[in-house]
């Protein structure tokens, strides 16, 4: 590869061609996101000024970003940012990249809490970048949001995002709900979890960019549901009667997932995404 470009328009064309040849699924989008990051501008500005000349430093940085993308690094790790629920989040290789499909679980949480009394008690289990916890703290008035993670490095990133968005989230280091104070048993209104749910046997078949993300945040055991089996009894202990547990799954896991939140202890159903794929389990603790 070389850098046979000198303007914004030429750089975009070069990157699109290079990324398309590398079997990139979204070459135009990735090229624009990376160049906008290099130039510190919005993507729309790239198309307003296609004749803008690039400096030698800008050309070098952009070419290196494209090289790294071709090597399989996620765009979010290259730019250090990812949008989620209309908010900008810091993202590093220590955390899973927030995904658009995960917005569905947040939207359902917001629906469940809408119209309720202020002061809802919410726990985000396995918070990672803090995208879910920060979104809930931002959009739910008066909610008390707690978030746990097994990784101190992940919590460091999550704290950065809390500071960026000036919200209040209480972070606790530990496995699943183990660090939640025992005094909160039977008092929590909502528990949300986007835990690893990829079956171990599928890990090596994932796209390179996904395999670049922390394995700890992806590998869900033989059928992908190991962590949820551990979480469900903990959630049942901490939720108030009528409180809800929401957790994200992969398409095709719905039937198996419902077996771990059975009646009469739970009233459970599957929420599908816009493509009618199974995506979220909604389990309400029986009264």
UniProtKB/TrEMBL annotation:
Stored Gene3D superfamilies: DNA helicase RuvA subunit, C-terminal domain, Vaccinia Virus protein VP39
Catalyzed reactions: L-glutaminyl-[peptide chain release factor] + S-adenosyl-L-methionine = N(5)-methyl-L-glutaminyl-[peptide chain release factor] + S-adenosyl-L-homocysteine + H(+)
Annotated InterPro entries: HemK-like, Methyltransf_25, N5-glutamine_MTase, PrmC_N, RF_methyltr_PrmC, SAM-dependent_MTases_sf
EC number: 2.1.1.297
GO molecular function: peptide chain release factor N(5)-glutamine methyltransferase activity
CDD domains, sorted: AdoMet_MTases
Signal peptide boundaries: none
Positions contributing to S-adenosyl-L-methionine binding: 126-130, 149, 194
Xref: NCBIfam families: hemK_fam, RF_mod_PrmC
Similarity field: Belongs to the protein N5-glutamine methyltransferase family. PrmC subfamily.
Protein name: Release factor glutamine methyltransferase
Originating species: Desulforudis audaxviator (strain MP104C)
């Amino acid at each position: 590869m070389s850098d046979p470009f000198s303007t914004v328009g030429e750089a975009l064309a070069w990157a699109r061609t290079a990324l398309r040849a590398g079997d990139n699924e979204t070459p135009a989008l990735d090229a624009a996101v990376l160049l906008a990051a290099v130039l510190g501008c919005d993507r729309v500005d790239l198309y307003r000024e296609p004749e803008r000349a690039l400096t030698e430093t800008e050309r070098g940085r952009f070419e290196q970003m494209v090289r790294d993308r071709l090597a399989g690094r996620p765009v979010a790790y290259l730019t250090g940012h990812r949008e989620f629920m209309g908010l900008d989040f810091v993202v590093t290789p220590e955390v899973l990249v927030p995904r658009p499909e995960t917005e569905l679980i947040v939207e359902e949480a917001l629906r469940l809490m809408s119209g309720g009394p202020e002061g809802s008690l919410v726990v985000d289990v396995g918070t990672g970048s803090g995208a879910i916890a920060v979104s809930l703290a931002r959009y739910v008035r008066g909610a008390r949001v707690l978030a746990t993670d097994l990784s101190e490095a992940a919590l460091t990133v999550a704290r950065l995002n809390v500071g960026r968005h000036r919200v209040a989230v209480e972070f606790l280091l530990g496995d699943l709900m183990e660090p939640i104070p025992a005094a909160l048993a039977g008092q929590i209104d909502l528990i949300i979890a986007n835990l690893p749910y990829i079956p171990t046997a599928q890990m090596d078949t994932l796209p390179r960019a996904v395999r670049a993300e922390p394995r700890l945040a992806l590998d869900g055991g033989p059928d992908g549901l190991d962590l949820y089996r551990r979480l469900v009894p903990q959630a049942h202990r901490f939720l108030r009667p009528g409180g809800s547990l929401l957790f994200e799954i992969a398409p095709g896991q719905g039937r198996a997932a419902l077996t771990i939140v059975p009646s009469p202890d739970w009233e459970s159903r599957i929420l599908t995404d816009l493509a009618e794929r199974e995506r979220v389990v909604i389990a309400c603790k029986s009264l």
